[in-house]
Design brief:
single chain, mainly alpha, 77% helix, globular
């Protein structure tokens, strides 16, 4: 009887958590899907050119979005259609750049190193949130953002950060690291864009559909121009390529819903740094890429930062609700 009571109370607590903290679940789903995509890209890089992988990811995003749109028939919100389409167009251009740059970074560097650098985005998001969204400049916010970045560096310990001579690093690796840095900036801007788009109550299917509409023709063009197209030779390769696209689609959808639900991008993007931990474990299990005790300290810092930013963020009211007139760019349409 006592066990039944405990189970019942635990169920209520879990249901309460799911109802009140949807952004955490969306963030964790996004992290998991991005991690799967990162590891699949690394697995496929010796079998296909990076532009081919990019094209398959784009095809997966477009196909999944089209199916979602047909099944659910989600309408665009009434109101200023031009502004909505404009936001979606800008977002899709940024998403296309992010998808392409991240794919190249994962191929040219290792998933762990590229993910580590990409996940320095919380500091950029924090600055943009304060400047553009009116989020409060809190000591807790900046502290946990910096802690997550330090944790990311400790987990993967990229050679360029731990004293390896530049001459000993391949040009491909340096290019991959540079692209990952660019991806971090794009990712930060994208998360802020999701906040703007979310305030118009735009269904996530349009976010991914517009992305696919730009990425797929771009990928096919790149494959044609550089003459690198190749077809998969087995069902396993088709499955891996298709799964990468579907995983990316689910990751983008979940990230958008997390920002839309939470309305505080810096909290969501800091939760996303836990991707480094998943990729670190995945690298070891799948590719036998080992880590050191310093890496595990970094993983602990990331988890503390994720929990801390979530707890501190939930204690602060959304400034957009307090003073929407001060930020007309993010007002909802009637």
């Amino acid at each position: 009887m006592a066990l039944g009571t405990v189970c019942a109370k635990a169920s209520v607590v879990c249901l309460d958590f799911i109802t009140q903290r949807k952004e955490v679940l969306y963030s964790l789903l996004s992290v998991t899907m991005y991690s799967c995509a990162d590891l699949l890209i690394y697995y496929l890089k010796d079998r296909f050119h990076m532009f081919v992988i990019f094209t398959w990811i784009s095809a997966g995003i477009f196909t999944a979005s089209a199916i979602d749109g047909v099944v659910r028939r989600s309408p665009l919100p009434l109101g200023d259609r031009r502004k909505v389409i404009g936001l979606l167009a800008i977002n899709s251009l940024l998403s296309s750049a992010s998808e392409l740059v991240t794919t190249l970074a994962n191929v040219l560097a290792t998933p762990g190193d590229s993910v580590a650098i990409i996940n320095t985005a919380p500091t950029v998001v924090f600055a943009l949130s304060v400047l553009l969204l009116g989020d409060p400049f809190t000591l807790a916010g900046i502290s946990f953002s910096v802690m997550s970045v330090i944790g990311v560096a400790l987990v993967t310990q990229p050679p360029i950060l731990v004293g390896t001579l530049v001459g000993d690093i391949s040009n491909a690796y340096i290019t991959g690291v540079s692209l990952a840095g660019g991806s971090a900036i794009i990712e930060a801007v994208l998360v802020i864009m999701y906040r703007f788009i979310g305030n118009y109550d735009i269904p996530p299917v349009y976010v991914t559909l517009f992305n696919g509409l730009i990425c797929l023709p771009l990928g096919l063009t790149l494959c044609n121009v550089f003459d690198v197209w190749s077809t998969p030779h087995s069902i396993g390769e088709v499955f891996a390529l298709s799964s990468t696209g579907v995983a990316w689609y689910l990751a983008v959808t979940s990230l958008y819903l997390a920002v839309k639900e939470k309305q505080r991008p810096v909290c969501v993007i800091t939760l996303m740094t836990s991707e480094v931990v998943i990729v670190m474990i995945g690298q070891y299990l799948l590719f036998r890429v080992e880590n050191t005790w310093i890496g595990y300290i970094g993983a602990l810092l990331i988890m503390v930062a994720c929990i801390g930013i979530e707890v501190s963020g939930n204690g602060v009211d959304d400034p957009a609700d307090e003073n929407e007139e001060a930020h007309p760019i993010i007002e909802k349409t009637s």
